[in-house]
Design goal:
Radius of gyration: 21 Å
Shape: globular
Largest sheet: 10 strands, mixed
Order of helices and strands: HHHEEEEEHEHEHEHEHHEHEHE
Bound molecules: S-adenosyl-L-homocysteine, iron/sulfur cluster
CATH topology of the largest domain: TIM Barrel
CATH superfamily of the largest domain: Aldolase class I
Number of helices: 11
């Protein structure tokens, strides 16, 4: 039988494991805190659990810690880091410093099965889901890198790196629990944003499970046919169903949803598109982030001109949509959104 990764266990899973071993329950809590409050890298760092028990944990489970492999700093101080996984794969994360915050952008999968035509990660195909520990380790290691290189701790997390988080639902949710739980890493919930391409049933599920983090949805086109041309999976998960799910999401959570809208030249940047986007926004408590497209080598998409972005922005703004234009960061080292696709992955 393949051994489970100890860090894929929730606190309840750990308690079950300790009950089976006829151990007191408080041991599970102790182990949980070593794993998620102190973020230990090896089991022998634990000092208050009997050696015999540690040996049992060691022999019945395995560890999946990730290591910093390399990093590059851009002229605007954005840092792209690559991490080495237990099976030799590489995944990337980014630190984005700005005036009032230092944001970590982390990944949930190696590659991505959604295969959006404009996205570097989507074009490298799908390799595997990340484990819970592999997701959380990125925050731990990026925080270390941030203090070393920039002299500041991380303040925000965006799940906008490689992969579609709602297609790695269980492990992404567990990672969020560990990040936000006061007994673990105690991150403030409103400093974390999860971005999804839009999977209706998972959005509803997330409305119930979400520990309170913010939700962003990659819309990119307000018409079904146009969206399908950009996002192959949009045929299965239609705009109508996504919007319906989001209405329920807002009702259940009382939260505002952010729509991410990539500005692609002559694809989705017309006034017709803007008008339909306004209509959609009027039905859902939402904000809009317009994202300048970052070029991806080998792909035919072109960023909208600044003029077109501004006209689109004004059209929304004049109709009282809460809209802003996102600044692109780290472009000179290919660290910007949608540019993460390391060349070291052997598929
Ligand atoms: N899979 C999730 C989260 C990761 S992608 C999602 O799609 O939402 C994070 C964001 O980067 C998405 O809004 C995505 O559309 C955007 N993105 C992808 N490729 C991009 C590119 N080349 N330039 C700018 N943004 C891009
Ligand atoms: Fe996957 Fe998001 Fe890239 Fe689409 S944009 S391929 S969903 S990572």
């Amino acid at each position: 039988m393949i051994k489970p990764a100890i860090r894929n266990f929730s606190l309840t899973d750990l308690e079950q494991w300790f009950i089976q071993k006829q151990q007191p329950l408080y041991r599970a809590k102790q182990l949980y805190q070593w794993l998620w409050k102190r973020n230990i890298r090896r089991i022998d760092e634990i000092t208050n659990i009997p050696k015999s028990l540690l040996r049992a944990i060691q022999s019945e489970t395995w560890w999946d810690v990730i290591e910093l492999f390399s990093f590059q700093k851009a002229s605007d101080l954005t840092i792209k880091a690559s991490f080495f996984l237990y099976d030799g794969l590489i995944v990337e994360g980014v630190i984005i410093p700005s005036n009032d915050r230092t944001t970590a952008c982390i990944s949930t999968q190696v590659g991505c099965p959604v295969r959006c035509r404009f996205c570097a990660t989507g074009n490298m195909g799908y390799v595997r889901n990340l484990n819970v520990g592999e997701i959380v380790d990125q925050v731990v290691l990026l925080n270390r890198l941030s203090t070393d290189q920039l002299g500041t701790n991380l303040t925000n997390i965006v799940i906008m790196g490689m992969g579609e988080p709602l297609l790695n639902y269980e492990y992404t949710l567990k990672a969020l629990m560990h990040l936000t739980s006061p007994e673990a890493m105690n991150w403030s919930k409103n400093r974390i944003t999860l971005s999804t391409v839009g999977i209706p049933d998972r959005i509803i599920q997330f409305a119930h499970d979400n520990p309170g983090v913010k939700l962003a949805v990659s819309l990119h086109a307000p018409f079904q046919d146009k969206r399908e041309q950009l996002i192959p999976l949009a045929k299965k998960y239609t705009l109508i169903d996504i919007l319906e799910a989001l209405k329920n999401y807002v009702k259940i959570t009382n939260q505002v949803v952010t729509f991410e809208y990539l500005m692609l030249y002559n694809v989705n940047d017309s006034i017709d598109d803007a008008r339909e986007l306004v209509r959609i926004c009027s039905t859902i408590n939402s904000k809009v982030n317009l994202i300048p497209y970052n070029n991806v080598e080998g792909l035919a998409f072109v960023p909208s001109t600044e003029d077109k972005i501004h006209t689109f922005y004004k059209f929304l703004k004049n109709r009282h949509i809460n809209v802003r234009i996102r600044k692109s960061r780290g472009q000179d080292i290919d660290a910007a959104c949608g540019q993460l696709a390391n060349k070291l992955v052997n598929k």
